[in-house]
Amino acid sequence: MPNGFVAVASKEFLHVLRDPATRFVFLIPILQLVVFGYAIRIDIEDVPTAVVDLDRTRDSREALDRYRTTRTFEVRETLGSIDELERAIVAGDVKVGVCAPEGFARKLARGEEAELLVLVDGSYSSEASAAINVSRELALSSSQRLRAVPWDVHELRRVPRGVPLARISAESRLLFNPNLRSANFFVPGLVGVILQLVTVLLTAFSIVRERENGTLEQLMVTPVGVWGLLLGKLAPYALIAVLETAFVLTVMVFVFQVPIAGSLLLLAGLSLLFLLTSLSLGVIISTLARNQSEAMQMAFLLLLPSILLSGFVFPLESMPRPIYPVTFLIPVRYFIEILRAIILRDAPFEALLFPSVALAVFTAVLLIVSALRFHRRMA
Amino acid sequence: MDLAIDVSELTRRFGDLTAVDHVSFGVERGAIFGFLGPNGSGKSTVVRMICGLLAPTSGRAELDGLDVAKEPLEIRRRLGYMSQRFSLYPDLTVLENLRFFARIYGLERTVRERRIDELSELLGLRPYLDRRASVLSGGWKQRLALGAAMVHEPKVLFLDEPTAGIDPVARRDLWDLLFRLSGRGITIFVTTHYMDEAERCNRVAYIYLSKLLALGTPSELKARSDVTPSGDRWLELSCRSPTRALAPIRALPAVRDATIFGETLHLRVGSEWREEAARALLAELGEQGVGFRDVQPGLEDVFVTLTRTAAEANRA
Questions:
Q1: Taking CB atoms and an 8 Å cutoff, what residues of chain A touch B148?
Q2: By mean pLDDT, which of A1-5, A77-81, A145-149, A239-243 is the weakest?
Q3: Averaged over A56-77, what is the pLDDT?
Q4: Do the Cβ atoms of B221 and B307 come closer than 8 Å?
Q5: What mean pLDDT value characterizes chain A?
Q6: Alpha helices in chain A (DSSP H)
Q7: Which residues of B touch A374 (CB under 8 A)?
């Protein structure tokens, strides 16, 4: 046991018990989870749509009718030509246009692949990609050999014919998130981001407060070691963070109805690892910040890449090539990967070796750097 | 001589700045040692080096016979440090604060409780043990801080401006306490800006512009020849309005130095001094009840004189 660990840890517990802010420590993450969990939805519904039937056959009518039965599209207009359709999209009346070209039924009758032209307003990227995906799924699920060909109005360039239909990706999404619910995608990520924010702030504040109070200076003239001080200060916050993780996951399961498919034990173990990482992030901030407001700013500075570059909102694979390597420096990236893998896909530990080792390395490096910086501060 | 602190040629540079320049002094065991100097003169850098918080660029410091640089941990067990700012935990009670520091020093439970009991008695903290530190008044906070600094029975106590901002009664009480501790053989190293406190110390050191300018007992310092060059002497001038008399008196060629000292003026005058001339001048100003008497320079006179001489030498 490092010198002074028990003394520091038990004193720190007293602080936590006395601090009126402690009760908010439990309330706020839950509130954040509920508020943001409901606010962030990318389930695209009722995209304004127009249809054009140039073939005027029963087959073409049936194919277009399929667009009326999904919740993704809301067919508002039936137009007479592609030109009209384009105008409607440019004017912003509709965002998606679907056209059954002439000869649609004839191709089907000959056993050839028939095409539905899908015009999409690319300026709303999420709605555009949802429109394209759902069109493909509609085509796939049809008994007839249909093919949805996406167009982008702004590029006005047809996607090459040779592009294979995204059978595999469509299937995998359906497998693990059968209703394509965005909650299943977002809430586990949100758990990671919120836990990081709270633990980073708690630890950073608790150490910076010692500096502000002048008590750090007092501790420096005592025989307490750097490790005793650091770990002693972390201990109560680690416990809080563990309780908080349990709370937040409970809310996820019962409020957002995102069931945990994988092993709870594995989830608990790896969450603990991530909490250590994020506690050490807090420690390193505390060695950089001179007062609590600086610590607050740094924690929020850390928050932005943790949201944008962690795969929480934007898939890592689709990041621009120069940005992608940066994501490896964002610890919560690994935890979000772990959370989604265990919660949604029941992944075994072997599959999570890389993110787990990455988190362990992060924790070790952060703690050692913090200890060194503390040493220098002591000198 | 049995030294509790032995500092020789201690030097510390920060880049181009020399914060402490070849400072040497010794503090006898059980003495109260006053360490004075203007803010920014290098006072706290010296203290930090003796406490092992800062490595010297050259020179060495010994505490209780141990080389500070070589045995930083053992040093910390032998010294207690009370900073100028209240630096305990405001949200913990007096007892919890004392217990925390006792634990940090690794005291066994029975030793710890006995020691806290002794300290509460010595410092009069017993009625306040269950109060939060934040609600204590300045003087009591200072006592608590002193208690926390000596819970592990240190051989040497460092007190950084212990009486800054506390009321005169608490100040007197604290000094009574320091004398008692010194009587028990604890060495006390105290920095202060108050001259009356410096007068109470067994020995005093004065540091200015990184260099030690003076070292000795208060009476040794007052007798220094560079404070009172041969032919010069110190006079106390009493009159009705010392503030009004200050400027014209200072303008007299025989007056080397003049400062207000409470209700009087302290003058350092040269051999050409003629009391009659000064009396005539004061009479012209309408001053009444003018009196002169020979005095010893006060410590303040000593430090001001030494500082001016050093500042002039530094400019030259």
A1: 218
A2: A145-149
A3: 83
A4: no
A5: 78
A6: 5-18, 22-39, 58-69, 82-91, 104-109, 125-141, 167-176, 182-213, 215-220, 226-254, 264-288, 292-308, 324-327, 331-345, 353-378
A7: none
Site of tokens 């990967």: A337
CB contacts < 8 A (A, B): 64
What single-letter DSSP state applies at residue B93? B
Instruction: Judge if B3-216 and B224-315 fold alike in CATH terms.
Output: no
Q: Does ipTM surpass 0.95 in this model? A: no
Taking alpha carbons only, the member of B68, B23, B15 closest to residue B44 is B23
pTM of the model: 0.74
CB contact under 8 A, A223 and B76: yes
CATH number of B224-315: 3.90.650.10, 3.30.70.100, 3.40.50.300, 1.10.3720.10?
Answer: 3.30.70.100
Residue ranges covered by each domain of chain B: 3-216, 224-315
Domains of chain A from N-terminus onward = 5-40+181-378 (no CATH), 47-176 (3.40.1710.10)
**Phi-psi sector, B182: left (phi>0), alpha (psi -120 to 50), beta:** alpha
**Domain B3-216 part of CATH 3.40.50.720:** no
A215 vs B85: CB contact, 8 Å cut-off?
no
A219-249 residue pLDDT tens: 888 888 888 888 898 888 888 888 888 888 8
